Sequence to fold (472 residues):
Amino acid sequence: MKVSVDEDKCCGAGSCVLAAPDVFDQRDEDGIVVLLDAEPGEHLHTAVREAADVCPAAAIMLADRT
Amino acid sequence: MSTPSDVLVVGASAAGLATAEALRRKGFTGGLTLLGDELHAPYDRPPLSKQVLAGAWEPERALLRGQEVLDALDAGFVLGDPAASLDVATRSVRTASGKVLRADAVVVATGVRPRVLPDQAGLSGVHVLRSLGDALALRADLLTATRLVVVGDGVLGAEVASTACGLGLDVTLAGPQQAPLAAQFGPLVSDLLGQVHAERGVRLRLGAAVLGLAGRDGRVTGVRLDTGEVLPADVVVVALGAIPNTDWLVDSGLKVDNGVVCDAGCRAADGVYAVGDVARWHHEGLGTLLRLENRTNATEQAAVVADNILGVRRSYVPVPYFWTDQFDVKLQIHGVLPADAEVSVVDGDVAARRFVALYERDGEAVGVLGWNMPKQARQLRQRVLGQLRDFTGAHVTAVEVEKADF
Fold:
């Protein structure tokens, strides 16, 4: 699984951090998403999929969604 | 109930798509159909009043998913065909074009439509903003206009005023409150927000009720206030809130009362569920019915609906959240901000226009607002808002939750 984020779309809700804190964080200064791990291990895939699905700005993209 | 072999989602916007995605994420392999009234693939609405209206984004950028991701969902999309009626007993939906779609489980995700002024029909230059088409039509009109009046001092009205100001228009924001979003935020934050709008050149014509519109030769010329004043306008945006899209359910037998009335698991009848803006469900923490129109409600409620469809009984008890971007101000609101709450600044500095405000009632934190501090506001949510899952303990009412809602 490869994760990418669109900083321009990100609205700073932090839903991704609530869903997958090992993979996502937010910048201190403006709350924009910080990708901690672009190729997370398999044990994190469910959480990352949930983060991508619940992002209210559709700012998280996954390649190899399987 | 056993797992359904197929699911029909009526509505192909954020809540409908999120329900389909949650079903797949949770392992549902049966048939999945999304029925949408618009021809577009599912798109996102928050950017419509901001990036799309401003012209900073091409409309395609508002699409919620790329085609590959939609294909991987392995769902049938029936688009451009509004639902016309539902038969609850057979769980079949008849569409405007005469198609009949049937499934073991039906999810109502038909959203809301904007409230309009009684005299707005037939006048050109008067707009609402809900769909992508609305946003593009408004943008086209704004590009040749000089004076815009926005009717409605809530989130949408204030966002449109901000975006139009950025496009160089002479903007007036009209509404009954003393400051934009006063009911949602209380005086500390709404007064500061009003100040930001005024500094950027938005004329605030607040504290007066809008009676209706003025027009000549079929084109709007102004907005009439109860003071007798007429605010001159080339274009008017009406942003007075929204009404649930339930007309098509009138003969369905479902209980409809300011939305589709559901139980705590968002179930409206056997095998029929509702999700998103249209759903009015029993919030167990509040002990009453609640309907929310915010963006994260669509996805969070969708996950609960998907579980219940798949036989995992779960109640939906969310902590409300919304955000709004106006000029260079990014506001994040978690929880509820009651009118009589004690408000204190717990991080940052109001003068520096970067702060987090905590809203407390009876000594209990019930809401957090971040002004250009999204991360810090979210962190506080985690620390103090757990108790909002039991709203009764915090003495918060359903009216206050809905009022705090976007």
The first strand of chain A starts at residue 2 and ends at 5. The domain at 2-63 of chain A is CATH 3.30.70.20 (Alpha-Beta Plaits).
